[in-house]
């Protein structure tokens, strides 16, 4: 009984801290970025950003905000018509249409051929890109469900799709003294050691959180093991995250892969730097949550856009953020 009272007080205090931070961030929106922060203004022609899954939700809002900041934004969408419609909406709703530059292109992150075709188009059309926002994602669980029926699709899209885009876009990322940026849209549900939703296998948790033991093989083996258990009907929520298990594992994989890639990319020479970070947008009113959530897609996109625009000094690399603050993995 005493424990549950303490638990609910802790939960209440954490909720209050989050709310406070949201209020602070909302105030920050009103402040323009300082000229010295705006590395993109020193590039001509405009910096090019790609946002995946950009036809709706957090993706279209990230695309809109980046475009309003002056980047040329490619809305990558698996349904070409929906992508075109979203780009048209951004232009039509812009306060100053002439200053906004957007276009759309077909991209299914779960399809290797589609990613290759997209990469070829991006090189041919723009000579490369400066910013990649890996936003495309799926979650088939709603409310209190915890079904793993679509586990393979969830992992193929959220983790393998993100990884595939990173692999395909790194060679295309433009060299500049300001560095290029990769932002992965992830989730607090994917924390390896989250209080409510962590990996139950202590040894795996420790390896995932230890930079010397973390490897691509470890992440891929974790996923293969989970999917095999799903196929055999032997998976247990004692071993894996308890809430939205398949989705949480996919975002955990994205988080730790972000850390791994940051380490791999960190020895690139000056002028060829790529900074990679991930963030949780919060609980957002989009199709994914059945428009429940407690913040708008516009608010949800904010931290991702902020990460994409961060100056190169001091370097921000391999970190996890929410509400523009670093949080633990
Ligand atoms: N909403 C939240 O509370 C919340 C919380 C934490 C993290 N996130 C993350 O935020 C990101 C955006 O989610 P959202 O809330 O904006 O959901 P959403 O409205 O359902 O949008 C998801 C987007 O991803 C696209 N997509 C799905 N599979 C794709 C594929 N294979 N290739 C390309 N695009 C694909 C969808 O395209 P279609 O229209 O073609 O389906 C859609 O544009 C996701 O990564 C999600 O996991 C959301």
UniProtKB/TrEMBL annotation:
Signal peptide: none annotated. One of its GO terms (cellular component) is membrane. Coiled coil: none annotated. The keyword Transferase does not apply. One of its GO terms (molecular function) is oxidoreductase activity. Belongs to the short-chain dehydrogenases/reductases (SDR) family. This is (+)-neomenthol dehydrogenase. It comes from Miscanthus lutarioriparius.
